[in-house]
């Protein structure tokens, strides 16, 4: 299976490097700046699951001459439209597109461009970042990937994908209901991103503050209500585990959106929180704390665009 990873950042760089190191046929679609950096340093991953250093196969958009079997999409949501223009020449009627972006709105955009059957569902739990030198830094135990056909069918393509991803040093799961898995991830992420961006701290810092735990619990309840109103009630054991993680004393856990905020970088607020809230509002669900997080992030994004 010829694999094109679109974006060699914190997520694409991590999984692409693991796949390449396990002998899979991986090429990264990159832009000029990242290409220059990767040619100079190689692709270096620092991870508690084992460090890696590979010489990645790189392509610029203008160099695409033939389609790939699998396209793994790992740009930020705000880069999606431009990325679609760039990788479109790599898509044939047989190509599978596996987006790993957080949120759900990208499915409408990808389906409108490439058709229902080309677009798989996919998601990852990982805490990773790029260092100033462009190394991928992965933290903590999470580095898993879940995927599936959005209509729950088990096609030869999805089975081939499962076989290709297996044995590459990270846990994978072919989900029987990928939309449910995506809603679970979105509920988890919206509450983590909403909490850390609104309260401006790590989970440990928030837990230690007076009223922190109560605020976390209220934000989780808002997120769960939005998911339930959209037909995806979250299981009590997931909510219990998630609440325990979100209130763990001393925890350094943050959302990638909070880390972007701290760096003064663009954030995926519209794609992740704005869309989540809109889907709650459509069902009459009030979520004042998540709304406050989103308003604050919108003001931040507007201030960035004026710079
Ligand atoms: N980081 C994390 O912990 C997690 C992130 N996610 C989600 O994964 C997605 C990706 O996030 P993340 O990896 O952190 O983001 P990064 O910013 O680290 O990586 C995105 C990469 O996409 C590249 N890119 C953008 N446009 C193009 C293009 N047209 N062609 C080629 N490359 C392009 C950027 O390259 P350039 O250098 O050229 O800008 C950048 O390296 C997001 O939706 C995020 O929410 C999900 C789980 C965890
Ligand atoms: C919730 C988490 C950490 C899990 O992957 C994530 O997706 C993010 O921070 O963007």
Report the uncertain regions: none
The biggest sheet amounts to: 5 strands, parallel
Q: What are the bound molecules?
A: NADPH dihydro-nicotinamide-adenine-dinucleotide phosphate, ketopantoate
The best one-word shape is globular
Helix amount = 40-55%
Q: Tally of extended strands?
A: 10
Question: What is the radius of gyration?
Answer: 19 Å
**Global structural class:** alpha/beta
Hey, roughly how much beta strand do the residues contain?
15-25%
CATH architecture of the largest domain: 3-Layer(aba) Sandwich
Q: CATH topology of the largest domain, what is it called?
A: Rossmann fold
Number of discrete helical segments: 12
**End-to-end distance, in Å?**
43 Å
**Which sequence of strands runs across the widest sheet?**
5-2-1-6-7
Catalytic activity: (R)-pantoate + NADP(+) = 2-dehydropantoate + NADPH + H(+)
Domain Ketopantoate reductase C-terminal: 177-297
Protein name: 2-dehydropantoate 2-reductase
Function: Catalyzes the NADPH-dependent reduction of ketopantoate into pantoic acid.
Q: Could you please describe the fold and organization of this structure?
A:
- With 307 residues, the protein is α/β, with parallel strands linked by helices.
- The protein folds into two domains: 2-176, Rossmann fold (3-Layer(aba) Sandwich), CATH 3.40.50.720; 181-305, N-(1-d-carboxylethyl)-l-norvaline Dehydrogenase, domain 2, CATH 1.10.1040.
- Helix content is 47%, strand content 18%.
- It is built from twelve helices and ten strands.
- The protein has helices at 12-21, 32-41, 80-87, 105-114, 156-165, 178-199, 203-208, 212-229, 236-246, 256-263, 269-281, 288-305, and strands at 2-6, 25-29, 43-46, 52-54, 57-59, 70-73, 96-99, 121-130, 136-148, 172-174.
- It has a five-stranded parallel β-sheet, covered by helices on one side.
- Strand 8 (121-130) and strand 9 form a beta hairpin.
- Helix 6 packs antiparallel against helix 8.
- The longest helix is centred in the middle third of the chain and has 22 residues, at 178-199.
- It is globular and about 55 Å long.
